[in-house]
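# step 3/5: fold
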Amino acid sequence: MCQTQIISRHIGRIGRRSFDRRMRIVSPAFVEKRGELARLLNEVDKLSERLREEFSTITENDYRMFGPELKIVIGTLKALRQDSLTRKDLKPYNDRLRQQISDLEELDHDIKTFRVDAPKNKELQATMALLDSLDFSKFPK
């Protein structure tokens, strides 16, 4: 079983921070936006890395715990990116944020597809069992 509570706390923390950063960025008085964004982007990198590390141990119950939060974080990051697009000085951060959003969306899709839905698919399970039973040593190289 994966470290669901750690992942869930990490997602929650990023969600709060990304929303907070979004509110600050749209404020014209916000001067520290680059440092704030850099810290947030580093946190998102750590989350993506943890999800990749734990991918093979994530269960449907784990995903049920953190999946909805992950979708909220992705939505908040998208809104943050949209708000920060109006600031030319944040362009380097926007490119990185776009890539991170894409990575999180892909991870979310893969977890849902391969860790949650695939074990329930009887046809896929039968096909995998058939492939496992094949002796590939008899095939020419």
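# step 4/5: annotate
The CA atoms of residues 37 and 93 lie 7 Å apart.
# step 5/5: archive (pending)
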